[in-house]
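U., I forgot to send this yesterday:
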Amino acid sequence: MKIAVIGAGAMGCLYGGKLSAIESNQVYLLDVWKEHVDTINEKGLWMEEKGERLHYPRVKASLDPKEVGPVDLAIVFVKSTMTEKAVMESRALFGPATWILTLQNGLGNIEKIGEIAGLEHVLGGTTAHGAYMKGPGEICHAGFGKTIIGEINGEETPRIRELHELLGNADLETEISRNILGLIWDKLIVNVGINPLTAITSLTNGELLQHPELLKIMERAVAEAVSVAEAKGIRLSYDDPFAHVKQVCHGTSANKSSMLQDILNHRKTEIDRINGAVWLEGDSSKVETPVNQVLTELVRYLEKRKAPPVQEA
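Result:
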C-alpha cells in the first residue's frame, strides 16, 4: 500500500515508521522541517522504544506532496490548528480512491478535511500512544495504547476492516468502533484533563498523579467536558471518564504531552481545539465551563512568552 503521513512530528513518525516495516508498503512522511526530512532520507528514521533503539530505513520523507503523488492511504497528524492549511497543500496526495484517516487531537478535524477532500474519503480515529521528538530523524515512543478507528456513519465497511488489519500488522493494536464521534470526544476529554496541566506545570503525564491539588483541577475540567458532551447528545464510552483519564496518565507516565512539548519549544499549542473547544461548545449548549476557560487562558498566556535570552559567558 502506498501511504503518506501528513505531518512528520513524533506521532506521524511513530505511525509512519511502524507501517514502513511492512515490506509491501511504501511510506512517505510529509513535513515542512527540511533538516528532519533530509535526515530521514539520508539515515532513515530512528525510534527509541522500551529501552531499544529501532531503525526504520525504508521510510522516505518529502517537503512536497507533488513529489509523492496520489496515495492509497493518507494519515493526517498535523496539529489541529494547521489542519485546513496542511490538507489544502496536500491535495496532490488525494486520488479518487484515497482513504484519509485523521488521528489528531481536538474537535473539527473531520469536518475540515471533508470540506476539502470530500467527506466520503474521511475516516476518524483516536490513538492512545505518546511520543516526542529527540531531534531530526529521531523520536521516543513513550506511551503505549490502542488505536481505534471507524467510519463517520458507524458502518463496519470492507475498507475499515482492511485498515484495521494493516495497522495491526504494523504492531499497532487497533479496534474498530461504530461510535467514532463519541470516541473523538473520549480522546478530547483525556486531552482536556492532561494536556493543559502538563503544559502549565512542565510535568510528565504520570507525574500529574502525584499531586492531589492538580488531580482536583483535572477532575473539574473533565466533569465540565462530560457535561458539554451530554448536552450535545454525544455517547461516551466510559462510565467514569475521570478514572479513564487517570488510567491514561499511568499508561503514558513517561510521556511529555504534545502541549507541553509545544510550550517548551515556544510553539503555538492546540489549546483552542481542546479546552477552548469545550469552553466554546459549552457556551453554545448553555453549560458553564469555568475551569476549562481558566486553563485555556493560562496556556494562551504561556504561548505568548518568549524564549529567555541566551546569557553570554
